[in-house]
Amino acid sequence: MQNIIIASTSTIHGSGYLDYILDELTVFFKNVDTILFIPYARPSGISHDDYTEKVSNAFKKINKSVLGIHSFENPVEAINNAEAIFVGGGNTFVLTYQLYKNNITEVLKNVVKGGTPYLGTSAGSNICGLTIKTTNDMPIVYPPNFNALALVPFNINPHYLDPNINSEHMGETRETRIKEFHNFNTPPVIGLREGSWLKVEGNSIILKGHLAARIFEYNKMPYEVNPETELNHLK
After folding, report:
1. Ordered per-residue pLDDT tens for the chain, 235 residues
2. What is the CATH classification number for the domain harbouring 121?
């Protein structure tokens, strides 16, 4: 049975790394001692080791150990043996490229579908959807394709931003870009605002946090859903 947290972000304004969701993670990882961290999306200017250390320091607050997948000789074996997995943020195209390069896309999908607890933030959340076509990131590398893990039956847009009515910027809004996605694609898209996450248990997908999410469905007007809404009907 799937056991997944798909979070919009790792850090909200005025808070430390993962601090806003640590209470949830204490329960989520209650039966876990060590978390396998996949740092492949790493933000610019930070090494895999430094990124893993940052994550490790956050999880020390809830008495969890962290090991970076890059420290293992066999990443497939590391995933198969993991108690739990965390994929952090950065660039979604880089992350997807590295997953395919290391031949771990399918094994990661299979272990999570088999019940290994999975936490994703930002890029690590983008790959939970059907494709990475609704990421906000620039395509700075070219992965073999845009297919993601398909752990949920829709696409995700983390860091969803509402239009700023006071802005003088006349370019595309986030909503405009998602509507453009639907000119060529039909899967629903969930716009996850900062501090929100999806809790997936088996076939149940529930919006968590304090903010509503914006739902985009093909050939329909976008609409809002409140926290604690069940979303497994989207497909």
Report:
1. 899 999 999 999 889 999 999 999 999 999 999 999 999 998 778 999 999 999 999 999 999 999 999 999 999 999 999 999 999 999 999 999 999 999 999 999 999 999 999 999 999 999 999 999 999 999 999 999 999 999 999 999 999 988 666 666 656 789 999 999 999 999 999 999 999 999 999 989 999 999 999 999 999 999 999 999 999 989 8
2. 3.40.50.880
Q: Which of 60, 82, 97, 77 is nearest to 3 (CA)?
A: 82
Given 8, 70, 125, 137, the catalytic residue: 137
Q: Is 65 a catalytic residue?
A: no
Told to judge if 125 belongs to the known catalytic residues of this protein, a careful annotator would answer no
Residue 230 domain flag: no
Active site residue 159: yes
Strand partners, 104: none
- Residue 235 is assigned to a structural domain of this protein: no
Choose, from 159, 162, 182, 196, the residue flagged as catalytic. Answer: 159
Q: Among the options 8, 122, 125, 196, which is catalytic?
A: 122
Amino acid identity at 212: A
| C-alpha 109: how far from chain center | 13
Q: Is there a domain that residue 232 lies in? A: no
Question: What domain range is 80 assigned to?
Answer: 3-225
CA separation, residue 161 to residues 141, 199, 205, 231 (Å)? 25, 21, 22, 20
Spell out the alpha helix ranges (H) of the chain.
Answer: 22-28, 48-59, 75-80, 92-101, 105-113, 123-126, 174-181
Count structural domains, the chain: 1
Report yes or no on 156 lying in a domain. yes
